[in-house]
């Protein structure tokens, strides 16, 4: 195994802002794949950052290189404090925060349990209650949006898809991503720089959305004004019509004389 190559990759990632990844690289390289992906997560203020680093084997040199990484910024979604279908959203969010969801979606761990021991089932009963409440609020459009936001907030990065499938319909509203390539002899974009870049793109996206909303609102207002003015014809048109009719009438009288 080329330990020098692994050390060089670990050092490169350290400079990019990804710490303590040498052993993770080692565990993948020992299988001698042609390529592999390594995932990392970071938290910036209230934002979640996910990085997927792509490595590829240089067959001539029998070494691995970092080709690029995908950076995904997931903004914290402001959830409504409303009551939806008699479910208090704020209370639901607090109770979901009390659950260790990574452990909840771990279906590999085995342990003995006794159906008579109700205390041992307390966690699962809480989860069942929360899932029922999520399904209850999903019967309305507002509730669907809130439910999706809660799932993305607490289940991001957890293998929930096996049991509950994808929750992607709202992803475009809360996520923004970019691929950053690395070239030989260049330092590359660091994780912090990638975060600032994605933050700027997010702000730009928000500004464009506000501008579009303003343009749509102005367009509707103009259409409404045009419809009101053209409903029965404007006073100016009526005056012009009256003058035209009078003019035709005078001509007819002159001709008859």
Short description:
This protein has 257 residues and is of the alpha+beta class. 53% of the residues lie in helices and 18% in strands.
Features of the shown structure:
257 residues, alpha+beta, four-stranded antiparallel β-sheet, flat
Describe the structure in your own words.
The protein is α+β, with helices and mostly antiparallel strands. It has helices spanning 3-16, 22-29, 89-97, 101-104, 122-137, 141-155, 161-164, 171-174, 191-229, 235-256; strands spanning 35-44, 47-58, 63-74, 83-84, 87-88, 175-181. The strands form 2 sheets. Strands 1-2-3-6 form a 4-stranded antiparallel β-sheet. It has a two-stranded antiparallel sheet with strand order 4-5. The longest helix has 39 residues, at 191-229. The protein is flat. The model has no long low-confidence stretch (mean pLDDT 83).
Give a topology summary.
Elements: H1 3-16, H2 22-29, E1 35-44, E2 47-58, E3 63-74, E4 83-84, E5 87-88, H3 89-97, H4 101-104, H5 122-137, H6 141-155, H7 161-164, H8 171-174, E6 175-181, H9 191-229, H10 235-256
Antiparallel strand pairs: 1-2, 2-3, 3-6, 4-5
Strand content is 15-25%
Intertermini distance: 116 Å
Succession of helices and strands: HHEEEEEHHHHHHEHH
CA-based shape:
flat
* Overall mean pLDDT: 83
